[in-house]
């Protein structure tokens, strides 16, 4: 399933980098992915599927997943992962802004993707428009941090990190963008992905569930 106006990307370095990272995820990261998808049901839209890292964790209560992945070198890997998944998954090479028209979804999943879009609030408003009334957003995202690490994030975002990591911007107030786009956060927590002393800008992630405000 494709759209004549679908937007795709071809970033060879990022595709290799993300493939390496996703195939070596820690057990803690996998557990967070599983927890973030727990309790989902019905039709789900996943934004930025990457290599399909989430696919094995969708519960049996999910009847269908439509997974969007605009990176042309990652989409074939996502399709391979979809073929091995226990729930039906269709991978489409497009962004959410240019995805084909579809029936409304029960939930949308965003995993490590809102940091890389040009306008997170605009994307989140588009995400909200794809949901049924009262539908939910599950997010697992990098977030801005305070103190010296926040300074490191701002430096990374202004220099090499976005070029290396597929336009990833680490110092983003992602949860503020979620609420500004018309979602009401129901549950949220922050988790460390590396020890506090590790000087990386992606040390912390936020996981949460938000409902589309009526």
UniProtKB/TrEMBL annotation:
What keywords are assigned to this protein? Methyltransferase, Transferase
> Transferase: is it a keyword of this entry?
yes
Q: InterPro entries under this entry? A: Methyltransf_11, SAM-dependent_MTases_sf, Thiol_S-MT
- Note one Pfam family from the annotation: Methyltransf_11
Q: Which residues form the Methyltransferase type domain?
A: 45-137
Q: Would the keyword Magnesium turn up in this protein's UniProt record?
A: no
A GO MF annotation of the entry reads:
S-adenosylmethionine-dependent methyltransferase activity
Biological process (GO), any one: methylation
Taxonomic superkingdom? Bacteria
Which residue spans adopt a coiled-coil conformation according to this UniProt entry?
Answer: none
Full protein name:
Methyltransferase type 11
């Amino acid at each position: 399933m494709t759209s004549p106006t679908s937007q795709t990307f071809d970033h060879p370095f990022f595709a290799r980098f993300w493939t390496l990272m996703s195939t070596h995820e820690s057990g803690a990261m996998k557990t967070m992915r599983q927890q973030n998808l727990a309790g989902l049901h019905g039709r789900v839209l996943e934004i930025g599927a990457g290599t399909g890292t989430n696919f094995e964790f969708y519960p049996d209560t999910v009847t269908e997943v439509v997974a969007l992945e605009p990176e042309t070198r990652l989409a074939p890997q996502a399709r391979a992962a979809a073929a091995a998944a226990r729930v039906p998954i269709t991978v489409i090479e497009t962004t959410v802004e240019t995805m084909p028209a579809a029936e409304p979804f029960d939930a949308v999943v965003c995993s490590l993707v809102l940091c890389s879009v040009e306008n997170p609030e605009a994307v989140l408003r588009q995400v909200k428009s794809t949901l049924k009334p009262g539908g939910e957003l599950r997010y697992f995202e990098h977030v801005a941090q305070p103190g010296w690490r926040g300074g490191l994030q701002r430096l990374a975002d202004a220099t090499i990190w976005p070029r290396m990591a597929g336009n990833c911007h680490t110092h983003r107030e992602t949860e503020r963008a979620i609420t500004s786009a018309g979602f009401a956060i129901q549950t949220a927590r922050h988790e460390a992905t590396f020890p506090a002393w590790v000087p990386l800008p992606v040390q912390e992630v936020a996981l949460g569930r938000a409902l589309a405000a009526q």
